[in-house]
Design goal:
The longest helix is centred in the first third of the chain and has 15 residues. The chain starts with 12 loop residues before the first helix and ends with a helix. The radius of gyration is 19 Å and the shape is elongated. The protein contains 11 helices and no strands. It folds into 2 domains: about 55 residues, 434 Repressor (Amino-terminal Domain), CATH 1.10.260; about 120 residues, no CATH class. The protein is about 55% helix and about 0% strand. The protein is mainly α.
């Protein structure tokens, strides 16, 4: 919970993660940029912003130092009940994905996987971020090799955290609207622009 003075009362990893994400957004940093400045792994930063409770304290302090935040220990005050609002990201992403598929659906092969990889990818990309990645933004980026301004962090999370099967399905699904190999090349292009190292996996070689 956040006190009136702006101090964050850390009762779980969620409070700390939210404070880190808010400070990062205010500084205009992507997750990749903050991770490099703090000299921590991108996965660690993703877990920190996602609210994971079991993280190395020294790395947490390194991230806070870059964001000009202090970790202060004080005597506990009256307990406060914190109610979390339900997250509708998943339903919103899936709904928008169906609209995008209808928009681009002309000429799509009937062999296109029925799994909604676009919606799943949007959910994965926005799981730890305040704003969701819209399906049309994802499709446009993969078809043109350019990330939507302000959504760089979403693509970092997607490329770093999504299972290979999801990325393979996403490339196949969006690839039905482009030239052979176009989407896979654009994935490599986007990863290079964001400083994300893609593991040499069979799913990317065969895409």
């Amino acid at each position: 919970m956040r006190a009136e003075s702006g101090t964050v009362v850390w009762r779980s990893g969620r409070e700390l993660g939210a404070a880190v994400r808010e400070a990062r957004d205010q500084m205009g940093l992507t997750q990749a940029q903050l991770a490099r400045r703090a000299r921590v792994g991108l996965k660690f930063l993703y877990e920190l912003e996602s609210g994971k409770d079991t993280l190395r304290a020294d790395k947490v302090l390194d991230v806070l130092a870059v964001l000009a935040l202090d970790l202060v220990v004080t005597p506990a005050g009256p307990a406060a009940v914190r109610r979390e609002r339900p997250n509708a990201t998943t339903r919103a992403a899936m709904h928008e994905a169906r609209q995008v598929r209808a928009q681009y659906g002309a000429g799509v092969s009937e062999d296109l996987p029925i799994t909604d990889y676009i919606g799943m990818a949007c959910t994965t990309a926005g799981v730890s971020l305040r704003k969701a990645l819209a399906p049309d933004e994802l499709v446009h980026a993969l078809l043109h090799g350019k990330v939507t301004p302000g959504k760089q962090a979403h693509f970092v999370v997607l490329l770093e955290e999504a299972p290979p099967a999801l990325l393979q399905g996403l490339i196949a699904q969006v690839g039905a609207w482009g030239k052979p190999g176009q989407v896979a090349r654009n994935v490599r292009k986007i990863a290079g622009a964001l400083g994300v190292r893609l593991k040499e996996s069979e799913w990317l070689k065969s895409a």
